[in-house]
């Protein structure tokens, strides 16, 4: 991944975000600069949102159907997903400090699972050394 130009662009962008743009350390940003900084894209990301997705699985009577005895007359199953949201950040390091680089993610909240992953990662690195 380190050989991809997108990776290097993201690293440079995150470094600028942490340290501020060159030559602006002592200046207060203009109103336009504050708006740009607020909506600046810090890394490549893909987002999907759907209000509702319905899946219908049918086992109609006839050739090529299930041989399960309870489905001898056919059957159906409906699965509904409501407000499905998927966010994918392809160049983000999973081993980053818990929550440190993720605050700009859309709808991100630090949860117990990410804290657990961080603790397990620290334990693994200690054992490795």
How far apart lie the N and C ends? 24 Å
How many helix segments?
3
In this structure, how is the largest beta sheet organized? 2 strands, antiparallel
Count of distinct structural domains = 3
| Strand-pairing-aware structural class | alpha+beta
Rg value: 24 Å
Range of helix content: 25-40%
Task: Give a structural overview.
This protein has 129 residues and is an alpha+beta fold. The protein is built from 3 helices and 2 strands, in the order ααββα. It folds into 3 domains: 1-43, no CATH class; 46-88, no CATH class; 93-129, no CATH class. The protein is 32% helix and 22% strand. A two-stranded antiparallel ribbon has the order 1-2. It is elongated and about 75 Å long. 1% of the residues are buried.
Question: Which descriptors would you attach to this protein?
Answer:
129 residues; 22% strand; two-stranded antiparallel sheet; alpha+beta; 32% helix; 3 domains
Write the layout of secondary structure elements.
Layout: H1 5-19, H2 31-39, E1 46-59, E2 75-88, H3 112-128
Antiparallel strand pairs: 1-2
